[in-house]
Amino acid sequence: MMEVCGSSNVSLREFGCEQSLLSRPDGSASFIQGDTSVLAGVYGPAEVKVSKEIYDRATLEVLVQPKVGLPSVRERSQEQCVRETCEASLLSSLHPRSSLTLILQVLHDDGSLLSCFLNAACMALMDAGLPMSCLFCGVTCAIHADGQIITDPTAAQEKESRALMTFAIDSTEHKVLMSSTKGSFSVHELQQCIAVSQKASEKIFQFYRDSVRRRYSKTL
Amino acid sequence: MAAGFKTAEPLEYHRSFLKENCRPDGRDLSEFRATTLNIGSISTADGSALVKVGNTTVICGIKAELANPTVEAPGKGYIVPNVDLPPLCSSRFRPGPPGEQAQAASQFIADVIESSELIHTEDLCIERGKLCWVLYCDIMCLDYDGNLLDACVIALLGALKNTQLPEVTINTETSGPEVNLEKRHGLQIHKHPVGASFCVFDDSILIVDPTAEEECLSTAQLTVVTDEEGRLCSVHKPGGTSLSAEKLQEFICRATARQKEIQKLIDKVIHSVKTAQ
């Protein structure tokens, strides 16, 4: 079931994905980028707590579980980023008054964790068969001290960099769905990083497509 | 009549204003609400500031404590920001442990402090490996009417500029710290980051400085933080509808203009506080 994509010119690390590997969730996926690995599970649409019920759409809850310890403030902010990105692409108005729960379990963190969360989330939502208006993917860019842009950095490269940006790109128009940055940078550098991320996103979407195609050609 | 329309169809109500390029409170689409700043409002804190952006009111108090530096960074002090959204400020917040929005705001402020390098944490070190300052920046929202992050950043900056730390010497005999409360000195603020928040309505109309109502109805939110050199410290867009790179450019230009306005405001208030003393 494991698909692996080798990296060529826009240097992304090798990435792999496996869908429906868990039996209890309605959709699950593991996504691996280099040594960074995240396991995602989706439950829903299911019954919702009355206090969280929204009358015209589904309530989406995202839980980020770190490898060790309890989720802290950093995880909360990552949850918010992933949740609002998923809300933008999910057609949640088709399941009003119901709940969707997305759990993201960190298996190993070696940089670009937020982008790996987004990719795993998208694959898990796809596996759950939830209606979406578009797909999305996450790309992390690091600006090295000499101005060089590195896509999909490792933890060591992240530490050395002077700025770090993560974008979520949608599959229909290749625009920016989410952006989260660290460090200071110029406007020009931001635009460059967006352009690079858009280029990298094409590769990831192609990988999504290949991965899903291979999976369904096997089951048929 | 208008009140009934607003309650029954809030989105249509806002759209009818936006069609005419204005907003229900009479503002232009790219106009910020009146921002007022009061520095030194809490006399018991080491530094404080109260900010009002329209109805949104945020107060920030800074408490400095002496502590041991961490083993990983023996030559550095640290800054601990915390954003509190009590039930007092809006009906959407419940008592109990901080909710997602409060925690995300705390993380955002921590990221801004780190990214902008407004204070070099080395300056907070008193004796390497032994003693340093910890700045607890407690930010509390008193009235929530949208655009929390901008108000928090201004309050933080105002309070840090107002902070006066007492002089600390280390007694060579007892090797304990001696605090001289008479002699105080200000913190060195290297950068002046200021945020500007935007909302996207109906996937296309851009408005600045949203109120709480506009935030609820909008499809996406974005906060851009810039410093005085025009460098970006944060482009925070937690999600929502997608934006093109050109649209982002528009936001950034507005954010740089806002930074200049707010820096002028802070300088003016600091100056007036000094002349009053």
UniProtKB/TrEMBL annotation, chain A:
Its main location: cytoplasm. One of its GO terms (biological process) is rRNA processing. GO terms for molecular function: DNA binding; RNA binding. Belongs to the RNase PH family. Signal peptide: none annotated. Homodimer. Component of the RNA exosome core complex (Exo-9), composed of EXOSC1, EXOSC2, EXOSC3, EXOSC4, EXOSC5, EXOSC6, EXOSC7, EXOSC8 and EXOSC9; within the complex interacts with EXOSC3, EXOSC8, and EXOSC9. The catalytically inactive RNA exosome core complex (Exo-9) associates with the catalytic subunit EXOSC10/RRP6. Exo-9 may associate with DIS3 to form the nucleolar exosome complex, or DIS3L to form the cytoplasmic exosome complex. Pfam families: RNase_PH, RNase_PH_C. It is found in: Cytoplasm; Nucleus, Nucleolus. InterPro entries: ExoRNase_PH_dom1, ExoRNase_PH_dom2, ExoRNase_PH_dom2_sf, PNPase/RNase_PH_dom_sf, Ribosomal_Su5_D2-typ_SF, RNase_PH. It comes from Scomber scombrus (Atlantic mackerel). One of its GO terms (cellular component) is nucleolus. This is Exosome complex component RRP46. Keywords: Cytoplasm, DNA-binding, Exosome, Nucleus, Phosphoprotein, rRNA processing. Residues 12-131, 135-199 form the Exoribonuclease phosphorolytic domain.
UniProtKB/TrEMBL annotation, chain B:
Its main location: cytoplasm. One of its GO terms (biological process) is TRAMP-dependent tRNA surveillance pathway. Residues 31-166, 193-252 form the Exoribonuclease phosphorolytic domain. Transmembrane segments: none annotated. InterPro entries: ExoRNase_PH_dom1 (IPR001247), ExoRNase_PH_dom2 (IPR015847), ExoRNase_PH_dom2_sf (IPR036345), Exosome_comp_Rrp42_subfam (IPR050590), PNPase/RNase_PH_dom_sf (IPR027408), Ribosomal_Su5_D2-typ_SF (IPR020568), Rrp43 (IPR033196). Keywords: Acetylation, Cytoplasm, Exosome, Nucleus, RNA-binding, rRNA processing. GO terms for cellular component: cytoplasmic exosome (RNase complex); nuclear exosome (RNase complex); nucleolus. It is found in: Cytoplasm; Nucleus, Nucleolus. SUPFAM superfamilies: Ribonuclease PH domain 2-like (SSF55666), Ribosomal protein S5 domain 2-like (SSF54211). It holds the Pfam family RNase_PH. One of its GO terms (molecular function) is mRNA 3'-UTR AU-rich region binding. Belongs to the RNase PH family. PANTHER family: EXOSOME COMPLEX COMPONENT RRP43 (PTHR11097:SF9), EXOSOME COMPLEX EXONUCLEASE RIBOSOMAL RNA PROCESSING PROTEIN (PTHR11097). This is Exosome complex component RRP43. It comes from Scomber scombrus.
